[in-house]
Task: structure prediction
Amino acid sequence: MGYLQDPRVLFAAERTLLAWNRTAVALMGFGFLVERFGLFLHVMFPHKAQPLHHGLSLVIGVAFILLAVALLLLSVRQYRRVVAGLGAGEVPAGYWIHGGVLTNLALAILGMMLAAYLVLL
Result:
């Protein structure tokens, strides 16, 4: 996949990985917000809201969080494929290419823990 032995190819792939990272973090935050909005409705309107943690907000919120986890894992897979196809001239000497991968994997684990916390709470 060599592109003129240009290190900017690696940096573009890394920026794309981190863009997916930001998108996934936003989805996780939105999922948590949706789930907690159900709690807010239960507190504000106890006679109209569904029982605590059994409403649609829990399902939708956890679905957003799991979607974020899936995006994190898929983006790691895509990034690793691109990096594997790069030539020696496209990776600067001594450059650590695994920082974004480790960040995404850590966020994926934290996202799964958050989803489990919300479901089991």
